[in-house]
Amino acid sequence: MNHHHSASKMDRRRFLTILGAALAWLAAGCGRRRLQTPTPIPPAAAPPSATAILPTWTPLPPPTPAPKPTFTLSPTATPVSVPIAPTASLEGPADMALINGKVITVNSTDAIVQAVTIKNGLIQAVGTTDELRSRIGASTQVVDLQGKAVTPGLIDPHNHLQVMGLMGTYFLPFLPPEVKTMQDFQKKLAEVAAKTPKGEWIKGYYLVVAEGRVPNRQDLDPVSPEHPVWIMQQGGHFGAANSLALKIAGITAQTPNPTGGIIERDASGEPTGVFYNHRAMDLLRRYIPPWTPEMTRENIISTQALFAACGVTSFQDNNVRGTDTIGLYLDAGKQGKMLLRSAVYYTLEWPQDLNRALKELEHYADPFMRLAGFKFLIDGQAPTAYCHEPHNGISWNTSTWDPQSFKNAVRALHDTGLQICVHCAGDAATDLTLDAYEEAMNANPRPDPRHRIEHAVITTPEATRRIKDLGVVVSTQPQFIRLGGDAYARLFGEERMLRTIVTREWLDNGVHLALGSDAPTTPWYTPQVTLWGAMTRVSYSGKVIGAEQRLTIQEALRAHTMGAAYAAHEETIKGSIEVGKLADLAVWAEDPYSAPLQRLPSIPIAMTIVGGKVVYQA
Ligand SMILES: [Zn+2]
Questions:
Q1: For position 179, which CATH number holds?
Q2: How much distance in Å is there from the Cα of 317 to the middle of ligand 1?
Q3: 448 shares a domain with 566
């Protein structure tokens, strides 16, 4: 326990470096640090014009030898990497008993009890403290909750744990309050260049600069004549290179846009240095020295402590680029390095990734690590949201994949028996994805494939009905309303703005909803902020976006526990505090059901338990 404790303290310090001043400025967190409530926003914090949605910084997968396939897949394959159902005896005295508290079970009747006991890593019993006294033996570790609340361990159904540690190490931060204007941005870049050997790449990331301006090569060139530069927006779907970087990558006015990617051009047709969507960014990023497997290993191991300190007990990384990175995740499971339970999804960016997805992935599963399926990004962040009607961003009518090759790939992956997740910002992106799912499911009607839409920022009412009918899960992040909400009216118009992240509509129509963080694409990564965001839907400037779509704490917590478990086919083994389920629990310093709403984002976690083991204690 000591080991984990000191690790989490160290990592919290490290994370402050990672997100730099932006975290202190904007974020709420948990653990011992008392963090300020993330409202109100200082006036200097101009709302970004672009909605951050996804991080995928990895250059093209390097041509390393692939691991041999360990399973032969057939068109009607049963999933080979299913969640491991726990089996252990619940007889005899408990290993641990949490008594005299408020145990929010999130079971089917939302029951709240006083106590829970744990045996062999599983929930042994729930009930009143008196009812459970007979379970307490000489060897039982008794935790007197003294009225504290216990919830199921939070499950983050969409984050990118293995890239979090790169923010601030591999990618240098250009963040507020240090960088608020273009002048600040240039000053910082000049400072970095002065300390970097000539010719070496400078890689960075920014959240928002100069009221939403996207830096271009004209901004970068004067302060980086001797270094190739690549600076990405924190959401991960666009970024800027300087002229030297363009030269190294051989990108000129003659370079055609790749399908689904945009090399921005000026009036004379010359590249501005700005690249939108991954396929375009890949043309440049393949020339940047990638981070090392050691860095990824370190990130996977150390970043888990951050999430443990916020009550997270499971996460799903839905954007793992490169079969080698999938391999590093699976290795972490095999080597017992996982503090939290994880399901990972392999990202396909290019048609040739389909072959890798089908042939090079090990369908591995243990109780802490599992290959769960695949991921596509069918559009970008808000400026490149693929929509039915025009918007005021960069591109509104383009998917990142040619629709037919996307459908073919979805069809082939559906046949593996695993899940598919698709990043969808615009309404047309969701509809194309639903078409692809429907066609695959009609062609091969295997039971409950439970494919997913990630983000679903703008959707139509008709899509809600289809999502329900197809049994598709919506996995979304209220933080985007906080980060980008102020820009939605200008970008999408008032009417469509009210169609952003329609959580109430989904629940009312029986859609399976999972809430998560998408860390590190926004400055907020804690479940507490996510729950608060779903309940308030407040933008930076304090504007409520779609008040009627707000959720109650009960609904939001369910979506972050049972809903998120369901999103990965795990609702029978986790997500609620019920006998026989995994003993994955979060003890809250203050009851999230009765705490004042403004305190919710910063309620500390007192203890996090995974499989009956304390992995974090304040
Ligand atoms: Zn994401």
A1: 3.10.310.70
A2: 8
A3: yes
Pull the structure tokens for residue 371. 């290959």
Q: For residue 521, report the distance from its CA to the centre of ligand 1, in Å.
A: 7
Q: Do both 312 and 188 map to the same domain?
A: no
Tell how far the Cα of 275 is from the centroid of ligand 1, in angstroms: 19
Instruction: List residues, by chain if needed, whose CB lies under 5 Å from ion ligand 1.
Output: 54, 518
Number of structural domains the chain divides into: 2
Q: CA-to-CA distance for 294 and 299, rounded, in angstroms?
A: 9
Query: Would you say 592 and 106 are in contact if contact means Cβ atoms under 8 Å apart?
Result: no
Q: Is residue 71 part of a domain?
A: yes
∠ CA 602-53-367 to the nearest 5 degrees?
A: 70
C-alpha to C-alpha distance for 510 and 107, rounded to whole angstroms: 17
Which amino acid does the sequence have at 615?
V
For residue 157, the CA-to-ligand 1 centroid distance in Å is: 10
Name the least confident of 166-170, 192-196, 516-520. Answer: 166-170
Residue 267 within a domain = yes
CB 453 within 8 A of CB 437: no
Same-domain status, 257 and 279: yes
Structure tokens at 542: 């304090």
Helix (H, G, I), strand (E, B) or coil at 235: coil
HEC sequence for 105-165: CCCCCCCEECEEEEECCEEEEEECHHHHHHHCCCCCEEEECCCCEEEECEEEEEECHHHHC
Q: Does residue 517 contact residue 159 with C-beta atoms inside 8 Å?
A: yes
Last-in-domain residue among 244, 263, 285: 285
Predicted confidence (pLDDT) per residue in 261-286, tens digit: 999 999 999 999 999 999 999 999 99
Is residue 329 over pLDDT 70?
A: yes
**In the listed set 237, 267, 285, which residue is the last one of a domain according to the structure?**
285
What's the pLDDT score for residue 56? 29
Q: What is the 3-class SS of 567-580, one letter each residue?
A: CCCCCCCCCCCCCC
CA atoms in the 13 A half-sphere facing the CB of 334: 11
Q: Is residue 13 in some structural domain?
A: yes
Which domain, by its residues, includes 376?
A: 2-81+156-162+292-617
Q: What CATH code is carried by the domain that includes residue 299?
A: 3.20.20.140
Indicate if 232 and 323 belong to the same structural domain.
Answer: no
In the reported structure, the alpha carbon of residue 384 is separated from the centroid of ligand 1 by a whole-number distance in angstroms of: 16
Could you read off the pLDDT of 385-394 as tens digits, one per residue?
999 999 999 9
Same domain, yes or no: 417 and 269: no
Rounded CA separation 311/75 (Å): 39
Specify if 134 maps to a domain: no
Residue 83 DSSP one-character state = P
Give the pLDDT score at 383.
93
Same domain for 301 and 191: no
Count of other CB atoms within 10 angstroms of residue 331: 16
